[in-house]
């Protein structure tokens, strides 16, 4: 194979800013830290109690075996769990402090909002600092705000659904998030309402040894539609940061939800996320997951198909460069008859990077007439990199139709020769092959985000050959 040097760990968002904080918790986890978080937020007693119970669960809960193997050196007591910027939340861009405004200007948030977003939430470390809705959302009765605002203004809705899809006891990191969560998004779409433009949230870790623990709750009522998009970034430090989010989605009968992640963490972030949707009769849930960067990502968006004829889909792409491990996948649980699911996983590894597909398809007893198809494709760009696949199938009905196919490939000399003979450089040819490999996922994105994703990939290729 032709020799080339492709640096997948190249990261373009690695600056950090000097920001003043109104409050910075002491390092480590304790009742005192959890109480301080809840006190600063002015939360009701039921939420404070929920946090403290979750901390007890975290202390008792063992680390899953494969988690422990992947991150043996993660020290939970060497992390700041709450960093509150001095800036109060605003809906006027000009009111933000100059340091924070400059950060988001570099990331293109104001431009994105002006062009094609119905609403924008921007979270900086532990708190949402900017939120703005277009007037059309209010006219349609759509609720879109940060989770802290939702807890104050829509407490009954939050209490009804919070922690019901992903309880604190689900895993060690859902317990951690439940104890120290801060920020994140809340979305409620009324029955029959179609939110035609995407809603976006942007999450940035700015500080060293920091944790970010946003909590997102999306409720799509009967017959409604919504597309939510999140982006992520962090500076590059010598010490590690932790991102551990929880995303809960309720898809009511005949509703449709699309959740898109364009993640571009720096190589020192542990990205450990629990995402799950409950889908009722004839509803549809689609996760679109793009992962570049992070030291370790462990993320398995899941769909619980609870109503007849519900459908679910996960489309994911992961890059792993030097010193990086992308352990990603999906879970589909067919708990009702005539439900359908699809998983498409694409991974690319280089410079000793490791990609892992870890997935589950389960068909419960009594869930007749179910169909599921899993497709895992890995592209390995050198001899040192690895691709691993751990598919699990648990089928409780004889008539279930379950398919699984997997491929592992390298870029052939013939492909590069053909493209280079048409006038492309080796770098351009490599980029074209990689873009073609992930095209089934890219084409599902809105045009603006497909362009952003392609640019991120081009940054990985830039100056990397020859």
Structure description:
The structure is a single chain. With 466 residues, the protein is α/β, with parallel strands linked by helices. The protein has two domains: 279 residues, no CATH class; 54 residues, no CATH class. 26% of the residues lie in helices and 36% in strands. The chain contains twelve helices and 24 strands. The strands form three sheets. Strands 5, 6, 8, 9, 11, 12, 14, 16, 17, 19, 21 and 23 form a twelve-stranded mixed sheet that branches. Strand 3 and strand 4 form a beta hairpin. The N terminus is likely disordered.
Which features would summarize this protein structure in a list?
466 residues, alpha/beta, ten-stranded mixed β-sheet, 12 helices, 24 strands, 26% helix, 36% strand, globular
Radius of gyration: 22 Å
Record field, number of beta strands: 24
Share in helix: 25-40%
Question: In total, how many domains does the architecture comprise?
Answer: 2
Unreliable spans: 1-19, 109-121, 125-131, 234-238
Estimate the strand proportion. 35-45%
Main sheet record: 12 strands, mixed
Secondary-structure-based class equals: alpha/beta
Indicate the overall shape: globular
What's the average pLDDT?
Answer: 80
For the record, give the distance between the C-alpha atoms at the N and C termini, rounded to a whole number.
14 Å
- Total count of helical runs of at least 4 residues: 12
